[in-house]
Write a structure and sequence with these properties.
The complex is a heterodimer of chains A (about 500) and B (about 35). With about 500 residues, chain A is mostly helical. Helices cover about 70% and strands about 0% of the residues of chain A. Chain A has a domain of about 220 residues. In chain A, helix 6 packs parallel to helix 22. Chain B is about 95% helix and about 0% strand. Classes of the chains: A mainly alpha (about 500), B mainly alpha (about 35).
Chain lengths: ~500, ~35
């Protein structure tokens, strides 16, 4: 009897908070609606009105169903927080895909869901056809999704909470954010948005000015600046045109975008510390050091390798092609200023292998970036070196090793173990993606490149991602992007919750 | 006011740090590629 009550309440808790988050994210639809109205895009306007209605009704029904749990102030457990985090992303994928599908630019619902998951997870791979002619409203929606996805949908919803409950922290952790900027989660969520919105203003202004200087019309320059900033900061990689960054033909435009890609890939805790006056954190933080070292080594190796073939002439050309693409891969942005097949023909397999490693490492934890994360790479490397040092040292005294990440953290076995577990999960998904791609007829190096790109939420493509690729691969890539973004834990909790529910239903006496 | 001053300084520090890193990369490329 007791078990029955717990089960019903769990479902209601999950239903209430999932509905609440859906309602908040659905409210964002007002922005593309207004833009469609201003640009008199009536078809797009009706697409968004339909989506808005469906989302609001879905969210409201879920909240009504779960209201009892709210009224009774049911105990919010870890499994609820993690399950909500994983579930919200799936439901929102379907809801947010409606305007994509209705626009006619996505030939199937699967393609539309692929693009939404790509946006949410800040991957940046695109199956939308004829991007150069999509409506302004849909363009606003595409880039808004990637911007919100970068910060996190739950982080957005928590910012609007009137009253904080014990469950908010558990949902926040479920979305792979684990930094506490302020003593309460609501305050932390709001500060994350404050950082992003201030940079949105600074970045859009800078790109707008450069856009005007390179000959774009004022309104066009503004929207291009807004979209490119949103993609840079959220390390998404979307652009409002099919040529991506090639469209602008501007060294300065690319450089400014690159600066915001790097800043977006930094931990929100680091931004907070620097904004509070601790500027030395930029030089001592293990993630920053890890990123600077690995990205610099990658740039030097690829430059030395490509120099043999004399493909790019001079430092400026080299910077625009080599550094831009490596930083874009490393920060998991996925902006490209070379054509997809050029990676294969110009960079050869060696260059591609370096890009794969950079994509897998990714940006910082608790940032908008994906990948294994610099923090874990740093912890694993330091843990490995520490173990070797202990082995060869004659000193048997207990040694304590620390890593600096906002504050000093003791390098415990548990910390190394948890980092190793997530890293192994990433590598398993990467290998699976490579094998599936290869089994479907793609060369192994191309399958590996695309697999690293989806698992690390990067968005660079070597040419596999297209509307004509097999549906199985599209489906796997959606799952890989989702797993990579939520860092496995919440998805495992959701699977365990579903299996537990099915078992109770099937084996109940 | 003091809080805003700190935040503006923080933003400038971050922008300068990133720009300096890119200049460093550019310098390395200049040495390698000329």
């Amino acid at each position: 009897m007791e078990k029955q009550i717990t089960k019903v309440t769990s479902l209601k808790i999950i239903s209430y908070y999932t509905g609440f988050i859906i309602m908040i994210v659905s409210a964002l639809l007002i922005l593309p609606l207004i833009v469609s109205l201003i640009y008199q895009e009536w078809n797009t306007l009706s697409d968004f009105l339909i989506t808005c209605s469906v989302s609001a009704i879905s969210g409201l029904l879920m909240m009504i169903y779960g209201y009892e749990a709210r009224q009774q102030q049911a105990t919010f457990e870890w499994k609820h927080g993690l399950t909500i985090a994983a579930l919200v992303w799936i439901i929102l994928m379907f809801l947010c895909a409606i305007p994509y599908r209705l626009s006619g630019h996505n030939t199937s619902m699967l393609d539309a869901c692929f693009d939404v998951m790509s946006g949410f997870t800040t991957t940046g791979l695109v199956l939308t056809t004829d991007i150069d002619h999509i409506s302004m409203g849909l363009n606003v929606w595409r880039h808004l999704l990637t911007f919100v996805g970068g910060q996190g949908m739950i982080v957005l919803a928590l910012s609007f909470l009137a009253r904080e409950t014990g469950g908010t922290y558990k949902m926040y952790i479920g979305e792979a954010k684990d930094i506490e900027l302020l003593p309460n989660v609501k305050g932390t969520a709001r500060y994350i948005w404050k950082i992003s919105m201030i940079y949105l203003f600074v970045g859009t202004l800078a790109l707008w000015i450069v856009g005007l200087l390179i000959g774009l019309k004022p309104a066009s320059a503004f929207f291009h600046a807004l979209f490119i900033f949103q993609s840079s900061w959220s390390t998404g990689g979307f652009a409002p045109n099919s040529q991506n960054m090639l469209f602008y033909h501007s060294f300065i435009y690319e450089s400014i975008a690159l600066i915001f890609c790097i800043l977006g890939s930094f931990n929100f805790g680091l931004h907070y510390a620097v904004w509070k006056g601790k500027k030395k954190e930029l030089f001592h933080n293990i993630e920053v050091k890890s990123f600077l070292i690995t990205s610099m080594i990658a740039c030097i190796i690829v430059t030395l390798y490509l120099e043999k073939f004399n493909i790019y002439k001079g430092a400026i050309a080299g910077f625009r092609r080599i550094v831009f693409n490596i930083i874009s891969a490393h920060t998991t942005t996925g902006f490209g200023n070379v054509y997809a097949r050029q990676f294969l023909y110009d960079w050869n397999e060696f260059g591609i292998a370096i890009l794969i490693i950079a994509m897998m490492i990714g940006g910082s934890a608790c940032s908008t970036a994906g990948g294994i994360k610099g923090l874990r790479v740093g912890i694993l490397l330091k843990g490995f070196l520490f173990d070797i040092k202990k082995l060869i040292s004659s000193d048997r005294a207990i040694q304590v090793k620390k890593v600096h990440h906002i504050k000093d953290i003791i390098l415990s076995d548990a910390l190394v173990k948890s980092s190793a577990l997530i890293t192994i999960c990433y590598i398993i998904v990467f290998i699976l993606g490579t094998l599936i791609g290869n089994a479907l007829g793609y060369p192994i190096i191309e399958a590996a490149f695309e697999s690293a790109s989806v698992t690390g939420n990067v968005g660079l493509s070597i040419g596999i991602t297209s509307t004509s690729m097999p549906s199985v691969l599209k489906l796997f890539y959606i799952v890989a992007m989702y797993l990579g973004r939520l860092e496995f834990l919440s998805v495992f909790a959701l699977i365990a919750y579903i299996i537990g529910g099915v078992r109770r239903k099937c084996f109940r006496k | 006011m003091e809080k805003i001053k700190f935040e503006i300084k923080g933003i400038l520090n971050e922008l300068l740090f990133t720009a300096f890193y890119m200049l460093l990369l550019m310098f390395i490329l200049y040495i390698i590629m000329g």
